[in-house]
Amino acid sequence: MAVIHPWLEPLWAQWMALGERLPHALLIAGASGLGKRDLAEALAASLLCDAPGTDGQACGHCMPCQWRTSGNHPDLHRLSPEAGESQSPTEEGGSDETGGGENKAKSTQGATQIVIGQVRAVQEALFVTAHRGGKRVVIVDPAEAMNPFTANALLKLLEEPPDGCTFLLVSSTPRRLIPTIRSRCQQWHVPRPGADALRRWPGQERDESVSDSLLALCGGMPLAAKRLAARGGSALFERFTGDLGEDRIDPLRLAAQWEAWLKKDKAALAAGFSLMTLVEWMQRWVSDLAAVRLGGRVRYFPAQAERLAVLSEGSSAALLVGCYNEFIHIRRVATHPLNLRLFLEDMLMRYARALKGVQP
């Protein structure tokens, strides 16, 4: 059964209130790790179900629900880079704030694009009468994986949609969609969960491995934190904060240790811990250091707030913000460094200089 996470309930209620006024094309946008895909799956299930409950959710027992859960519903079409029109429901995935950089890099390549042939295949299916004469749903996820030719092909369907067809586009970066696609969809933004929703989450899906520290590191994105925890994120987090929490770091020594960590550590390799993840965590660490110097709130590493305050004493907000900006440029080449050791040394020396208050 499709999941409606606690922080998605208000948005779900708004959709259910629309009833038959629900638009034929929805763009479900928001940061990765919020459950956008789960939300789209739940809405598709509701639209195709013969007997939705009073809350609008699919019953899970009727024939259309059984077809959907078995991956054989003839009126449910999915467009995705990897699975094509695969019918099997999947969890919210793709790139996230904790380690999806490599996926982002690959998403620009043909092998991970939604290609025009997929849209044409769906187009042919949609212009045949629905299997039971009812509704049909097309889920495009992630929508930003469409190349320009694919997007223009889909645009024709959005402009003249077949009767009874609903298009659900899921996107973490809606600005990458062509304007005409966005203009044909009613956009719904999935907000970050509030404190009340997160308090209700532990009783439903959250397990003990999803610590408050991992949740903060993931920017309050519950499903991103859950994925990170499942990959052994707590141990990775402890080592990272332990290494950077020392009074002084030797950039060359730490670079050698981190190179071995990325290349040889079995736990890190099994967790898919990448250089991009490490750079993203460094950005968050420096961001919190700058926040401390500016008198702001520690966002990503609240449990290390006192240590961050001590480490930032020898620097200035300007230098730390400058270091953060340097890491933005570093991140752009993190997917293909010419030499991993030199890359790590350069990054850590920039960090060490900023901590010591040394101008670059």
The chain-level structural class is: alpha/beta
Mean pLDDT, rounded to whole units? 85
The largest sheet, given as strand count, sense and whether it forms a barrel, is: 5 strands, parallel
Shape: elongated
End-to-end distance, in Å? 55 Å
Strand runs, count? 5
In N-to-C order, the SSE pattern is HEHHEHHEHEHEHHHHHHHHHH
Strand order of the largest sheet: 2-3-4-1-5
> Percent range for helical residues?
40-55%
| Cα-based radius of gyration, to the nearest Å | 23 Å
The number of helices is 17
- Which ranges are low-confidence, i.e. pLDDT below 50, for 5 or more consecutive residues? 83-111
Strand fraction equals 5-15%
Summarize the SSE layout with pairings.
Layout: H1 9-18, E1 25-29, H2 36-48, H3 63-70, E2 76-79, H4 101-106, H5 116-126, E3 136-140, H6 148-159, E4 165-171, H7 179-183, E5 186-189, H8 195-200, H9 212-217, H10 222-230, H11 233-244, H12 251-263, H13 266-271, H14 275-293, H15 305-311, H16 317-332, H17 340-356
Parallel strand pairs: 1-4, 1-5, 2-3, 3-4
Helix pairs in contact: 5-6, 12-17, 14-15, 14-16, 16-17
